[in-house]
Amino acid sequence: MRVDAVIDVEQTARRALGLGRRTAVFRYPGALHDVFLSRRTVRQQAYRDVAIWLASYPD
Fold first, then answer.
1. Which of 9, 27, 43, 46 is 20 to 30 A from 52, alpha carbon to alpha carbon?
2. Do residues 33 and 2 make contact, with C-beta atoms less than 8 angstroms apart?
3. What is the dihedral of CA 12, 16, 19, 20, to 10 degrees?
4. CB contact burial 41-59 (16+ within 10 A = b; e otherwise)
């Protein structure tokens, strides 16, 4: 429950930047494939970053 061998993180990060005109890449050392199923400290960071990212879009 500490590592994920499913994804090539570097390749995914590079490709993510080409998905649209406004993209963001967040890295969470020790996160699992589904970041929100990772250990508590990683989940807390991810939820915080999602909230900040969503707040960057005006209503």
1. 9
2. no
3. 180
4. ebbebbeeeeeeeeeeeee
Sequence letter at residue 19? L
CA–CA distance, 10 with 46 (Å, rounded to integer): 18
pTM of the prediction? 0.76
Radius of gyration of the chain (CA): 13
**Cα separation, 53 vs 51, whole angstroms:** 5
Is 80 exceeded by the pLDDT of residue 43? yes
Largest CA distance in the chain: 38
Kind plus residue range of the DSSP H or E element containing 16: helix 9-16
